[in-house]
Write a structure and sequence with these properties.
The chain has about 100 residues and is α+β, with helices and mostly antiparallel strands. The chain has one domain. Helices cover about 30% and strands about 30% of the residues. The chain is built from 2 helices and 4 strands; from the N terminus they run βββαβα. The chain has helices at about 40-55, 75-85; strands spanning about 10-20, 20-30, 35, 60-65. Strands 1, 2, 3 and 4 form a 4-stranded antiparallel sheet that branches. The longest helix has 15 residues, at about 40-55. The protein is elongated, with a radius of gyration of 15 Å. The chain starts with 11 loop residues before the first strand and ends in a 10-residue tail after the last helix.
Length: about 100
Amino acid sequence: MKDANGKAHRVGEYIIADGDNRQFVIYWYQAHGRSIANEYLAKIYLVADAIRLNRTDGALIRVITPIGGNERMPVARARAEAFTAQLMPMLPRFIPN
């Protein structure tokens, strides 16, 4: 996925459900200027950054949107991606590189 500035980010996605209620989720781990969708790889980078930079900070970013009763999943995905693209440029204010 690309943010509003055209920078590519690695994200994961899934659908969660509780009965008839469904939600589309985009998520990634962000630390030190990188985005990672794989939890295990994020942990490896955490250890490497601790050794190399003496820092273990980072964040899990998760964007969730409902999938309406008659709504198709691609519509919910497009909505979540549009919001995420606007969100990404703001994250460096809160998550240091």
